[in-house]
Design a protein that fits this description.
about 190 residues, mainly beta, six-stranded antiparallel beta sheet, six-stranded mixed beta sheet, 3 helices
C-alpha cells in the first residue's frame, strides 16, 4: 500500500482540485491516480451530480449527497500495448468513515484535521513536487539516486524494467531507500 509521509515540498499551483474519487474507499495518500472516462473535465459539464444518500433513507424524506462530475481512479500499468496516463498523486486519504466507524460526512472538522477527503469531495492531486514516499513495490526494488520511477499496479511506484515498458515516467528518486523503506521522490508530471 502506498504511503505519503509528512515530509513534502510543493507549490499549491501544482495541485489539481477538480476531481472526486471513483473507486474503493478508503484510498490512501500516495496512490497514483488517472482520470476516468474519455472526456475528463469539461467546462460545460454540471460541476456536481447526485452521488448517494447521506445515511438511512426514510419515506417522504430526501437526503442526497453530491460529488464532482469529473473523477479519478487508481492508475496502473495499462493493458497490453497501452500505458495508463497518470494525473498525479493523491495528497490526502479518501474515506467514508473514521477509525470508530462514524460517518465523516457528519464530522467534517475531524476529516479536515486529519487530512482526509470525504468521498464525493474534490481530492487534491499533486502533479509536481518533492515527497517522502513508501510503498511495497518500490521497497522491493533497487533504487539509485536520479533513477526514474514509473507507475505500477494498484497505484504504487516502481523502477523495474517491467514497469518502465508499461507505464509513464512519474519522476525520479532523490536518494535510496532508508532503513524504514522510505525514499525521497521528485514528482514531475
Amino acid at each position: 500500500m502506498p504511503t505519503l509521509r509528512p515530509l513534502h515540498d510543493y507549490s499549491d499551483h501544482d495541485v489539481v482540485n477538480l476531481f472526486s474519487w471513483s473507486g474503493a474507499v478508503p484510498a490512501t495518500a500516495g496512490t497514483m491516480v488517472k482520470q476516468t472516462g474519455p472526456s475528463g473535465w469539461l467546462s460545460d459539464d454540471n460541476v456536481v451530480e447526485m452521488f448517494s444518500a447521506a445515511g438511512n433513507s426514510y419515506a417522504n424524506t430526501v437526503s442526497q449527497r453530491y460529488r464532482t462530475s469529473a473523477q479519478i481512479t487508481t492508475c496502473g500499468t495499462g493493458a497490453a500495448g497501452t500505458k495508463d496516463i497518470p494525473l498525479g498523486m493523491l495528497l490526502y486519504d479518501v474515506r467514508e468513515e473514521d477509525e470508530n466507524g462514524e460517518k465523516l460526512i457528519y464530522h467534517p472538522r475531524k476529516a479536515a484535521e486529519n487530512d482526509w477527503v470525504i468521498s464525493g469531495q474534490a481530492a487534491p492531486v499533486l502533479t509536481r513536487g518533492v515527497v517522502l514516499y513508501s510503498g511495497a513495490t518500490l521497497a522491493s526494488d533497487t533504487l539509485t539516486p536520479g533513477g526514474a520511477v514509473h507507475c505500477a499496479a494498484a497505484g504504487e511506484l516502481s523502477n523495474t524494467a517491467a514497469h518502465i515498458e508499461k507505464s509513464a515516467k512519474i519522476g525520479k528518486c532523490l536518494g535510496i531507500l532508508d532503513a524504514n523503506n522510505h525514499v525521497l521522490l521528485k514528482i514531475e508530471l
